[in-house]
Amino acid sequence: MPEQPLRIVNSVAPIRVCDNGGWTDTWFAKYGEIFNIGVYPYAEVQIEVYSADTHENRVVIYAENYGERYALNMPAENWDRHPLLEAAINRMQVPDDLSFQITIYSEAPAGASTGTSAAVAVALIGALDRLTPGRLTAHEVAYTAQSVETDMLGLQCGIQDQLCSAYGGINFIQMHDYPHASVSQIFVSNDIWWELERRLVLIYLGNSHNSSQVHEKVIRELEDAGPEDKRLSDLRTTAARSRDAIYAGDFAALGQVMIANTESQGRLHPELISADAQRVIEIAKAHRAYGWKVNGAGGEGGSISILCGALSHERRAMIRDIEQENPHFRHIPTYLSRFGLRTWERNGDAAHR
Fold it and tell me: Hey, which of 57, 256, 287, 345 has its CA 20 to 30 A from 267?
């Protein structure tokens, strides 16, 4: 009979879409304002906790999306197979007297420019935090996740993805001095919430991308320009305009801001709006969509958020036309997340009789 775990720790964290003002949460922007929306599908982590003296391997990682299960030597010093997971586990310094199997899963594809890696890191750190003394706040979990990417792995990474995953919902983020930021959550009536949820469409373009590589291209353009460069200033203005449009329930205005943000992204670097993204935008225009936003860093692959008009049948027709245009284009159903990081646990179930 298989051994039952002593405890089972669960955590989930949402991904992020429609990040108007993105790029102004970077070190080279120094300060910025970002509007974003946390949505499901979420990243999911489950930790099976056992006594250390009953297992040869202290930490086993099961990266379910990749079909990989392997032992991690602790303390981990060289991260190779799944560096983000391995570095986060090392950072959290889990107790020596326990052993673990850590399962990570996400329905959102990796490299979709929706902050999936940030959501995974937030969910993983949140789950591991339940095994250590004290408790991190949502803000502290976000900053720990961001530090794993930047300080431990040396990647280019802003802060808005981690904050959105930690807090969930609709957010207005003000970064005062990189990476220090405050989060103001936007609370609206159910009618506005449900209508925004109904109108938002997430289209995956079918090819994952490395956002850090795209960051490097933009940084080469902007590192000498300074934080007051007009291209960054134009992006900063879109966050407050998005916030105000949501509070007013003005979806036409929000759509216009999404378009303005995407055009500003294109002025940062021409590669940020790919030919595939442009083709999806053309189809969205033909179906009278209100707006579109190339998510995250943009570039080849990734995804695009579309804000549709009032009629549901036009939304469905648009999705069909997009998916028929290219076999790699795929609609990912989303739901707005009323919560950010959630963690809970229970003792292992007794064996079924």
Answer: 287
**Spans of the chain, pLDDT less than 50:** 1, 351-353
Tokens of 324: 């028929």
Look-up: residue for tokens 């943009």?
A: 298
pLDDT of residue 155: 86
- Helices (H) and strands (E) counted in the chain, each on its own, are 10, 13
Q: 102 and 60 in contact (C-beta within 8 Å)?
A: yes
How many domains are contained in the chain? 1
Q: What is the number of other CB atoms lying within 10 angstroms of the CB of residue 282?
A: 10
Give residue 23's domain range: 7-347
Label residue 154 left, alpha or beta by phi (over 0 means left) and psi (-120 to 50 means alpha).
left
Residue 140 resides in a domain: yes
pLDDT attached to residue 52 = 86
Enter the tokens of residue 166. Answer: 């930690």
Pull the structure tokens for residue 204: 């995956």
Number of residues written out for the chain: 353
Q: Which residues contact 25 (CB under 8 A, 6 or more apart)?
A: 32, 34, 158, 159, 160, 173, 175, 178, 179, 181
Q: At what angle do helices 160-167 and 138-147 cross, to 10 degrees?
A: 150
346: left (phi over 0), alpha (psi -120 to 50) or beta: beta
